Known about the structure:
Blueprint: E1 4-9, H1 14-23, E2 29-31, E3 34-36, E4 45-48, E5 51-56, H2 61-67, E6 76-79, H3 86-96, E7 99-102, H4 109-117, E8 123-125, H5 131-146, E9 155-162, H6 171-182, E10 193-195, H7 198-205, E11 215-223, E12 230-238, H8 241-260, E13 266-267, H9 269-275
Helix pairs in contact: 3-4, 5-6
Amino acid sequence: MTAIPIMVNGLPGNVARLMAQAVLTQDDFRLLPYSLTGPEIDADQIPVGDTIVQLIRPDQRSTVASALASESQSLICIDFTHPTAVNSNADFYCRHGWWFVMGTTGGDRETLATSVTGSSVSAVIAPNMAKQIVGLQAMFEYAATTFPGLFDGYRLEVRESHQQGKADTSGTARAIVAAFNRLGVAFHPDQIQMERDPSRQEHVWGIPAAHLGGHGWHTYTLTAPDGNATLEWRHNINGRDIYIHGTFDAVRFLNRQRFAGGGGSVFSMIDVLREGPVPRPPADQPS
């Protein structure tokens, strides 16, 4: 079995660190010893298991591009960086022929998609890598398409809580709000209530202290115009394991697309779900 070379970008960030550590547990993955990082990072390297990963700041990127030239036709990048780096990172991947999974939210998403479709690479781009949550989003999308205006006149309240370091509003909440808009609900994404205060998260929301540094809690409440009917949906995720599993499925899906031929495609986690579980090849067979 030929392991897929994986470059996890965003170290030493918490999500990227967990992703990199988890890559080491996968027989069909091989962690590359480089990670794109932000200009504010002082460290030059970070240990991930027995691998010393070099942290590559923006002004050093030409170095890593040269070092990985021989891997460019097979590597896949996993991007969990910062919203401000989304577009520049994607442009870098496209320029060097690196296929990628973009789990970072924010940035100019239209420009992001255009960068990929105008290049030789393909990417899985999703604001949420948790397959079960993506499936829930798909249900809302189905309802919005099939029953437009179903909740006309209803009032919507959206509350979301993430770890203190998350800079932007939940991309999942924004996607579900868009579905509610098509269902007849007048609500702007700017009305989403964000919580980033660990004290309130623990004592008001009831989020376990062990998961204050990594969680995603969402509540969507609809109230009828006369106040006599209330509908509520919640998805509360503690930790990040669910995102790791989904991201790895996206990598395996993307790897299969590469060998099917052709780049320039933007895939979503819905595409990954539609294909079903991506089988991992036996150890004695080529991937």
